[in-house]
Write a structure and sequence with these properties.
This protein has four helices and no strands. It is mostly helical.
Length: 146
């Protein structure tokens, strides 16, 4: 029997430590420089810039006690799973705006524009990847609960 996920508790304040966004940005930049994301180009740099912008918002708007400290009393896997589910919602919404669903077969007849068809196919794949990642996270949550 699976356990229900309940609302997260209030975070337990933690002593100051290295910001998690700093760790994420450093890792992504290092992996970019190693060629892990393909040829270095503007797309990866744009993602890193978006991470930096999120870091600024996190410092300004977020309760510092809710930082990703392992001892904060929060289950960060639950937060990650919900973020993936939100991503599924946004991707499905964008697909619907183009008149297709996450599982629709995209053909020349349904989407005549080749470039758009390729983009929508990649978006469908991202949607499926997010669902799989959410399922894997939910399994990890269950494993840790038992």
């Amino acid at each position: 029997m699976t356990s229900a996920i309940v609302d997260q508790p209030a975070p337990i304040p933690q002593p100051p430590r290295r910001p998690v966004w700093e760790i994420v940005i450093e890792h992504t930049t290092r992996r970019r420089d190693e060629g892990a994301y393909g040829p270095i180009g503007t797309t990866v740099d744009l993602v890193i810039a978006a991470m930096r912008a999120r870091a600024v918002l996190a410092c300004r708007d977020r309760d510092p006690a809710r930082d990703a400290s392992p001892k904060s009393g929060l289950n960060h896997l639950i937060d990650a799973m919900y973020a993936l589910l939100d991503s599924c919602f946004y991707l499905a919404n964008d697909l619907a705006a183009h008149g297709v669903g996450p599982g629709d077969l995209l053909t020349i007849g349904s989407v005549p524009d080749t470039a758009l068809r390729w983009q929508l196919t990649r978006e469908q794949q991202l949607f499926a990847d997010q669902i799989r990642a959410a399922i894997c996270l939910r399994a990890l949550i269950e494993e840790r609960a038992s």
